[in-house]
Amino acid sequence: MQTDLRHADYFLYTQFSLATFERCPLKFKKRYLENLKWESIPDKEAGEKIKRGMDFHLLASRYFMGIDDGIEMAGRNAHELMAWMKNLKDSFPVNSENKYLPEYKIRMSQGVLKLEANIDLVVIKPYKVEIWDWKTHGQNQKSMSNVYKNMLINSLQTMVYLFVAGEQIERIAGGNYKRSDISIYYWQPDPPGIICSIDYSDELHEQYREELVKKIQEIQNYDYADFDKELYKEHCRYCEFNWFCNNERVDYRAIEEDTDFLEELDWEEIEELY
Prior knowledge:
The chain is of the alpha+beta class. It contains eleven helices and five strands. The model is unreliable at 262-274 (pLDDT under 50).
C-alpha cells in the first residue's frame, strides 16, 4: 500500500506548500504528493523578473560568504544587479563581530509540526538574532504600502520562519539567546530599505504553534473525495494544472494583469513552479 506523504516522517512542510494548500488542495496534491511540475511562467517579462530575483539571491549569498560575486556573468541583468548589490553592500557592511548564515535551511520535526524554513540570511549579533528576507520584485509604491506590509506581517512565511527559528534557537545561535531576541526583516534592494519587521516573543510563538498545528492537521485529514473545484476556481487562470482540471490553457494575459501574482512568489522556492 502506497504511503500517504502527508503522514510520512520525512515530508516537511514549507510556507510555500502550506500556502498552496490554502489556495487549492488539489494543486497541493499534484505538486507535493504526486510531484507533478510544469513550467507555469513562460511569459518573457515575468521570466526575466524571476531570473533577476534568483540571480540577486545568489549574489547576496556569495557576498555574505566572502567570495567573489561573479556579477560580470549576469548578462543582460548585470547593470540592474550591480545597482542592487551596491545598495545591499551599503546597507549591510560586514561586521566581524557578527556571524552571517546566508541561504540558511532550518528543519524541525515535533509531532505534526514537520517544518522547513529556507532563509535568505540569518545574522547572529551579540544579544540579537536577525532573519532577513529579500524582496526583489517591489520597485513600486505598493511594496511600501501598509497593505503589503500587513500581508507580510501576517504571512505564512513570517509564521514558519519565526516559529522554526524559535524552536531551534539554541542550535542556531547557542544557549544565550531567547525567542525575544529574534526579529525578522523584509528588505528590498530598489529602492533600498526595510519594508517591515516583526519582533518575536514567547506569546507569539505559542500562537504560531497553535495555528500551524491546525493548518497541518487540516492538510493531513483532508479527504480529496470531497474536493470541489468551484471553491478554488479563482486561482485556476494562472495555475499550471489548469489543463488537467479544466481542459484550458493557462491565461498568461491574466498573469500580466495580476499585479499580486509576482508579489506572492517565493523566490527561494521558485523551482517548485517548474
